[in-house]
Amino acid sequence: MKLNVAVFFGGESVEHEVSVISAHQAMDALDHSKYNVIPVYVSKDRRLFTSEQMGDIHFFTGRKLDEAIAESTQIYIVRENNKAVIKPVKTKMFGAKDFGTIDVAIPVMHGTNGEDGTIQGYLEMLKVPYAGCDLYGAAVGQDKVLMKHILADNGLPMANWFWVYGNEIDEHEDEVLAKVHKLIYPVILKPARTGSSVGISIAHNDEEYLECFADARQYDEKVITEKVIRPMREINCSVLGEGFNCETSVLEEVSSVSQDELLNFKDKYQGGGKSAKGAKSGSKGAGMASTARIVPAPLSEAETAHIQDLAKKTFAALGAGGVCRIDFMMDADTKHVYVNEINTIPGSLAYYLWTAKGVSFTELMDRLVNQALERERRRSRMTTSFDTDLLLNYQAGGSKGAKGAKG
Fold first, then answer.
1. What is the pLDDT of residue 262?
2. Does 340 lie in the same domain as 290?
3. From CA 28, how far away is CA 331, in angstroms rounded?
4. How far is Cα of residue 36 from the mean position of the Cα atoms in its chain?
5. For residue range 74-119, what is the model confidence (pLDDT) as tens digits?
6. In 30-185, which residue ranges form alpha helices assigned H by DSSP?
7. CA gap 155, 217 in Å, rounded
8. What is the residue range of 277's domain?
9. Pick from 203, 227, 251: which residue ends a domain?
10. Residue 268's domain is classified under what CATH number?
11. Residue 13 has pLDDT above 70, yes or no
12. Cystine design at 53: which of 59, 146, 253, 261 (Cβ 3.0–4.6 Å)?
């Protein structure tokens, strides 16, 4: 019997369209002889939709999202008889009463309101096995401030940095700039919980810093300032597994296809421009796979092994799971390596780093499904509740029973 695999994508995020592309790459890679693939689209206003046509990327391209939604059915998911059942919000007289059940969910939602633990918490409430990081790993992986504190506690190397709340600049501009001066320009500013280079920029002086800060705070309440590494090489490594039980992919070196100092959103997802020598560049619309890259990265065996070891340690320290991509910065002169960040649901699910290792995209998806099921089996053996007589013996307003305070 085929498993019903629901792929969740979209969401209220600046990376909404990127999610649509990544999810369709994943749905195409799933073995349809093993799985019934159910597309579950999360609109920008957080409504759920499905239709058979939504499983085809062409259903979304060349028109507005509202038009695609109009041709689909709004749904909700409810737990009945120990199963997660997909039901239409509005039932028709002769229409289907439900759209079947979900055996496994695969979230392919980038950024806030999805990758950050939101969709994971929703699936936890429904008790649906799901691929990727659990709620906690997703949350700390998305929040770069929490992530950096955890990595620092585990002795992992990072560039010098600090963070402040976005509104602090209004009353404490001088104090914030004093911290920047200690780092020494140029510095890079990042919203704490976005991805795909959205809201990220480099400042070379106080005037630029205040302009960049104003842009970054539009996307998140917390803003990170970090020392720029120069000359810098960007090296990425994907990790697959759960916690300490994981393996690493080959490494890639990413090159900006523009003359900007940063790899921007357009570079990452829209292709174009000239690739770096030896780099592989995909077509426009190919998602993260379209970025100019060199695979495998031109590093020595020792350098490669060192970065792969740091990737495993980062993955384990953050309690990550599924397939992630961990980004590193290397000082091109000193060869010192710094952990930049983890992407718990990377663009295109980083499949291109696994195919380079001999793991097909279909096999990668199989592993994610199996990991989800195995994690649910482990959890089912854990004690999460126990029976008491607390309510049976409780008398509201009386002197008997619990004292109202948590012990």
1. 58
2. yes
3. 38
4. 24
5. 999 999 999 999 999 998 766 677 889 999 999 999 988 899 999 9
6. 65-70, 118-126, 135-142, 144-153, 168-171, 173-183
7. 29
8. 142-155+231-376
9. 227
10. 3.30.470.20
11. yes
12. 59
